[in-house]
Amino acid sequence: MEKNCITVVKVGGAVVEDSSRLSELLDNFCKIEGRKLLVHGGGRSATKIAAALGIDSRMVNGRRVTDAEMLRVVTMVYGGLVNKNIVAQLQTRGGNALGLTGADMDVVRSHKREVKDVDYGFVGDVDTVDGSRLADLIESGVVPVMAPLTHDGKGNILNTNADTIASETAKALSAYYDVTLVYAFEKAGVLADSDDEGSVIRCLDKEKFEKYVADGTIAGGMLPKLENAFAAIKAGVKRVAITKDTDLEVRCGTMIE
Ligand code: ADP
């Protein structure tokens, strides 16, 4: 039987900080036909609020270290401020949004990352996403808006990478839907030349990806994003697009199928 289509959109930290860009993105998100789900980041907002509270943000290899104080901040900022702001804005556009952390309806379970070289603190690696519960919500007309927070089933909230939540959610939903995963961020797509927005690599496969990683074209935050993208495709997600956050036009960015 043919499955219905769904678009899972992940928006990065930069856009949630900029109200006019966020507004443009949400306008475009609402124009996407059919079923949809939004996952958001919020790292920059957390850094700002933490600084206002006198709490330092500590980063290692570009990733946040979430100590007990920072966990309180990200829980407030991601689960509260950022999530509810997006939900309220979607309500003005006719989308019946529902904000969720992974703890809500037990939708995303994780375990605290084991300490190897670096102790990232209260960071969760995803174990399960309840695609069936999400599908029930979606089929009742709700647009889930997921914050980058999960829980371990023992009462602890854990900070979890939003790109990973998006790919794990897309994977779980692929049992029920034909899933398109869109990573929306500040650039036009995966670029062959980081200074040239016109150099978007239109199609990416594993072989090309490995070549671009080896020669340094793909680096930094783009690396885990694309690893998540390939993992999603392998697990049954139909296509992944990496595209501009104010545009969301799948065909204009980088496509992985
Ligand atoms: P997000 O905005 O979704 O949080 P990240 O900051 O984690 O995204 O990762 C995206 C970043 O990866 C870009 O802003 C860019 O600085 C970097 N990057 C590295 N290589 C590339 C590339 N080849 N094309 C586009 N961006 C790249």
Please, could you describe this protein's structure?
This protein has 257 residues and is α/β, with parallel strands linked by helices. The protein has a single domain (4-256), classed as Carbamate kinase. Helices cover 37% and strands 25% of the residues. The protein is built from 8 helices and 13 strands. It has helices at 13-17, 19-31, 43-52, 68-91, 131-139, 162-173, 206-214, 222-234; strands at residues 4-11, 35-40, 58-60, 63-65, 97-100, 108-112, 124-129, 143-146, 149-151, 157-159, 177-185, 239-244, 254-256. Strands 5-8-2-1-11-12-13 form a 7-stranded mixed sheet, sandwiched between helices. Strand 3 and strand 4 form a beta hairpin. Helix 3 (43-52) packs across helix 4, helix 5 crosses helix 6 (162-173) and helix 6 (162-173) runs parallel beside helix 8 (222-234). The protein is globular, with a radius of gyration of 17 Å. The mean pLDDT is 95. The structure holds adenosine-5'-diphosphate. Adenosine-5'-diphosphate is lined by residues 12-14, 41, 185-187, 190-191, 194, 217-222, 225.
